[in-house]
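User: Structure tokens for this complex, please. No commentary.
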Amino acid sequence: MSLSARQWETPDTLHTKEWLRRYQRIRQASERLCQPLCTEDYVIQSMDDVSPPKWHLAHVTWFFEAFILVPFQPRYRSLDPVYDHLFNSYYETHGVPFPRPRRGTLSRPTVADVYRFRAHVDAAMVELLESPPPEHAAEIMRRVELGLHHEQQHQELLLMDIKHILAQNPLCPGYRDDLTPAPAEPPGELAWLEHAAGIREIGHDLQTGFAYDNEGPVHRQFLEAFRLANRPVTNAEFLAFIEDGGYSRPELWLSDGWQQVGQADWQAPLYWVQRDGEWYHFTLGGLRRVDPHAPVVHVSFFEADAYARWAGARLPSEAEWEVAAREAAGNVMHGNFVESGHLQPVAASPGADAASQLFGDVWEWTGSAYRPYPGFRTLPGTLGEYNGKFMSGQMVLRGGCCATPADHIRATYRNFFPPHARWAFSGLRLAREA
Amino acid sequence: MSLSARQWETPDTLHTKEWLRRYQRIRQASERLCQPLCTEDYVIQSMDDVSPPKWHLAHVTWFFEAFILVPFQPRYRSLDPVYDHLFNSYYETHGVPFPRPRRGTLSRPTVADVYRFRAHVDAAMVELLESPPPEHAAEIMRRVELGLHHEQQHQELLLMDIKHILAQNPLCPGYRDDLTPAPAEPPGELAWLEHAAGIREIGHDLQTGFAYDNEGPVHRQFLEAFRLANRPVTNAEFLAFIEDGGYSRPELWLSDGWQQVGQADWQAPLYWVQRDGEWYHFTLGGLRRVDPHAPVVHVSFFEADAYARWAGARLPSEAEWEVAAREAAGNVMHGNFVESGHLQPVAASPGADAASQLFGDVWEWTGSAYRPYPGFRTLPGTLGEYNGKFMSGQMVLRGGCCATPADHIRATYRNFFPPHARWAFSGLRLAREA
Amino acid sequence: MSLSARQWETPDTLHTKEWLRRYQRIRQASERLCQPLCTEDYVIQSMDDVSPPKWHLAHVTWFFEAFILVPFQPRYRSLDPVYDHLFNSYYETHGVPFPRPRRGTLSRPTVADVYRFRAHVDAAMVELLESPPPEHAAEIMRRVELGLHHEQQHQELLLMDIKHILAQNPLCPGYRDDLTPAPAEPPGELAWLEHAAGIREIGHDLQTGFAYDNEGPVHRQFLEAFRLANRPVTNAEFLAFIEDGGYSRPELWLSDGWQQVGQADWQAPLYWVQRDGEWYHFTLGGLRRVDPHAPVVHVSFFEADAYARWAGARLPSEAEWEVAAREAAGNVMHGNFVESGHLQPVAASPGADAASQLFGDVWEWTGSAYRPYPGFRTLPGTLGEYNGKFMSGQMVLRGGCCATPADHIRATYRNFFPPHARWAFSGLRLAREA
Amino acid sequence: MSLSARQWETPDTLHTKEWLRRYQRIRQASERLCQPLCTEDYVIQSMDDVSPPKWHLAHVTWFFEAFILVPFQPRYRSLDPVYDHLFNSYYETHGVPFPRPRRGTLSRPTVADVYRFRAHVDAAMVELLESPPPEHAAEIMRRVELGLHHEQQHQELLLMDIKHILAQNPLCPGYRDDLTPAPAEPPGELAWLEHAAGIREIGHDLQTGFAYDNEGPVHRQFLEAFRLANRPVTNAEFLAFIEDGGYSRPELWLSDGWQQVGQADWQAPLYWVQRDGEWYHFTLGGLRRVDPHAPVVHVSFFEADAYARWAGARLPSEAEWEVAAREAAGNVMHGNFVESGHLQPVAASPGADAASQLFGDVWEWTGSAYRPYPGFRTLPGTLGEYNGKFMSGQMVLRGGCCATPADHIRATYRNFFPPHARWAFSGLRLAREA
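Assistant:
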């Protein structure tokens, strides 16, 4: 379902049933993602950046409670006032969040309690959505839409975090054992697609549907002419970098990246292991041989940047990527998203004259630091902490990945991670001066 | 059941059924301790020193597998070879143990898997115990006895760790809600019991039944005359120390202790919180008001030492404690152990002319560093790592506590923790020069 | 002296004497800066980012040895081969640098040895500059020019580091006691200067004289219309932020900044101390009362960003700053540089219709992350490590400061520091949407 | 000079000139030790445990100022009140000490200032010692004696710290270049000397001359029969341990020691380096080949303990060592002390029937944790912090070393360091059960 700008502005015209169906569909999707888990899997925090799956399920629920039910539903009663502390992620103006690195010390509320919390909030939300108070209906619908996108974002985080949790375990448990690898086809020679210089409009126009605050406002950027690769870098190509000593040649690396390589003893992408001379990697389907034709994934910005330098190329800026993505996709974004069921990037056979896999498969590191666009304004109130306060120390990634819900992505969508992070499904596409 | 020296030396005379009953009784006790837990509680590692309950259950089982079944039962097949890595605690000569601080990242094997592992090993152990190969029977029985004491030790650790895990949680969940506090009776004025100077025999005589290697050999020590308090320090007494500025007066503290106070911002024993001017503490029965008459518990050696200095006294040496305990107890050790069901130290009313509560209630910090006795020999082979290698950086505690199984303690029993540790049920008893 | 592009390209036309004079002038300036130091001051490394003054003096000398004398002067003999290890800062492709955080453990070479090293290299450089081998003359002159700019950069670092070193000392020793504070005049109300939208050329044209590689190439950027403050933020203005609770309101801060505030307990700019209700700050002239009219200095990017948010404004992008600086300055950069002898920002009285203090006084934090311009190429070989490899995790500052040599600055000059760094002479100027 | 108990008790009978000579002799010895230093060497703190030499010179001076001049010399004026903060090492009840790990950030007071401080205090001390106020004379003399022993202790620390400072430097500068290695003679086979079981008096009798508080009171200990090696372990012997894989066999190590080996990547004693298959070590005379016959030095307690286990022996207890030392030495302690001018342990040729090198050469690790003797009392007031508060986490060493002043050592002297420390001149002597 796509919500047109008119509907957004005049929610009274929106069919109630459609909103409800959407709410229920997305809420159920989160729970479906967790079906393959054991109770124990829900509890683990494998590193500070990872949250226990049950925390994710509770936090996205808290979002609806804190920002919609408590302010707009006077009859609403919370199950436990401590939840407001436990499941606040980082909203400092709302209250003191429970310390992030301690999320893995919480055995209670139990998984069953969390599902009860979800049902409790869902019941109240359904009631509210069926007859929203007219004076708040517009604001409620805005927050519902934000809350649903927020939940979809956490669906991807759930898969990233589950993968990281299971990967720590010497038993190598798969998340699902019914995932079959995609057929491995050679993607063909990399081709370069030209883009002329000129002034381009970048960013999301709020009149045309939902986007996060950080995607706007629309503004002009001048782009010098550039060339963009027709597909992401593959495992085979990345392996050539490894075999050429990529991880031991300081001249290929940013200074911070080189320090990171040494400290963490990086020798390959995250989840790669070598056994008897063969490279394997841990996937959501368990340990598999690395598919040479699939896009490389779980590389940091530092590795992406070093690879590009080694290849005599560079990473695209986020504006370059956005221009190419709009040209390639129009308004239709095909790709290997979570719905395809691979949960792993797959090889593709692009033509030499069109960019492929811009959406799905792997988030593509850009060369752009995550900073506000000219004229950027955060949302009012506590929700202003959603995106804006993270605009330092991070790099932008674009395009979604094999764990992203298909209707969650946009050409203007700005994802961001610190340059050393690797547990996202992150890969890269090369760019060059024209 | 108490095993006489003769039985130990000639296991063939031991009734098989008695051994089996003992094995089963102690193994079942571990599982009974875990009955009040939710599945989620089994998974948490709240600090590096704490292990997830399911890890405890699996590790004590691995002990029987690794040291008895694998060497002495050729037909035995392990459920998963990785368990030998996951559940090896610290036996470096056996294999590379899974890193201790990462135990909380293991969602698998699940709790159900761990119980299956226990059943699998128990079945094999029962079979072995029913008809041990005669040429190995003596060694097998020695290791069974060690393994059962090892499991009892972990029963106490389970309660310590469960308490620590639950205490992290702002929901303050109790381990059991059917624990009723003991009646609080004033213990009366502290009295001093005199002990004359002289040569004393210290340590356990291996001819008289089981003991850990670190309790022997028997050797002579000369003790100058000393006086020992007739009971442990109470919460009311410790509160007087707090109120006299005990935590802010450097002259009362060892240098390392003072540094620890500052770094960790200690202002009271572990688990104490002040609400509206009243002191509460977290217990296995949930948050309770501090009982002034009960022995203070969850203090570190540093706090015990500072309290003693403040009180114009000192901690007893472990030899002094042992001499007093033998005089007081003979061979019968009464006390508030795990079987009493309090799971918390309780007030007692000692007479002024006899030492009370030497056993049970709280482990009593001594002033003795944990070092080998003259002539100490570790067990042969990998089991030599059981105790000896920890003989640096730790202090000795004596007497057991409210979480110790009654038949696990001895007058010669040497427990040990680093001087800053507080999550054991540790308290203190004062001593003085005569 | 300004070197025209023609001279750069055809160094044979450059008067040898002029080059020599320049070399000697800049080399002597470094030593003159160190004259007020005691021998002991030369040795200290007060934090990892700071280098001992004698290390600076030796490192800039090593630069000439390693990149000019060794490759181009066959007769040159180094004083000690270990110096090539000790004084290599971060050129990984040249050799393994001595670890930066250990520079403060080197008592030898002594200060006298370092001056001998300088004289030794200077003698060889003078000889080389008097008769450079014609086939290498162009490259030599390019590297001399780079080496001299490098040394000027370190002259500013010397003052920053000396200030930091002396500030650690409870004796509060001044660097010089002959520095008199500038007269404190109120700078008048802040005024906003408009800049229209349009395509602008940004960056340095290599045809027009020396610049670092990171300042080029010239490229086009589209700037939306913006307004820029006519002067930097003053101490009085920053004090209003402090008094309005600026350091305790999370909604004003980037997330990383807020964490930093908490960890480091920031409550004011670096070097500020409150005594009897008055604010003082440590300066190179010792402890002084804070001048309300002077620009605030020693604030981090995080503080600058939080101040701007509090003030309802933002930081300018580096392109906006550059456009304004070119309009304001033409080719002439006046300002409070190191030559003015204040060694501290001073108050100014700008007109309301022109930007003042763009150059000198304080480096101005921009909102731009330090990343390469489109088409950026590093210098060939080891010198390529000079700038490019630091292009992650840092923010750009513009305009030079009271410790910068006047002939070292340019409108295109890109300085950079991590967002938490405060020991540079860093301040801010506000910008706004038009 | 040896001060008899009578003199100590009745200082009025002590010849003033003798006291003055002693004061001046010891004070001058400190300065003489520093003569080979460059000014820069005085400033360095190469690790947290090391203090800059000028800090040592000032701190021992502060001791006389703070504990004698300020309380007993009303006319005394300090040079700078901040010195009392800077040069207080750890006396928390005296004031807040300047943080130890920051001592290396202090360029001021300069070396010359420190010598001025010494002269200033010396002048006042001389004046006081020439005519002490009779009512305080006894206490003054007690404190002078303590202050002089304190200064001698720091003379050894000076040499340890200077060695560590110079050893960090890739230039490998020697402290003195006029130190000639002692002739290397094979010490002969190790022999075991028997000691019968019995009650022994341990500790220093305060009636018989000066000792630190931690050496008393005299008390009885029962020692089981034991055997003690006739000499320390040599480099050749320790090399056999290394070559037998000593540093890679966990069964030889205490658990904390094994962890330390891994973390710090220990493969040999501190200061050892292998070049072309030969072992060298850094000495105060520069880098030298390891002398196989000399006692091994710069090993930690962990290494000493592991070596002893490998050799089928153990470390002596401090009581065992003291008994043997008293028998061997009577009241005369010969040995390789600082006065011998080697500043490095040297080989000796002991007879097989007497213990050699108990004093001097290397501090000998004992198996005893540093804890108070029965009846131990600290000095009254702030001086009580001198020794007692360090009685946790450390092990006792006995006998002095090649950097100890000969008249500073006693058979009862208890030195102590944490079990991982290696920068003292620490070695070991083996013991065994009889």
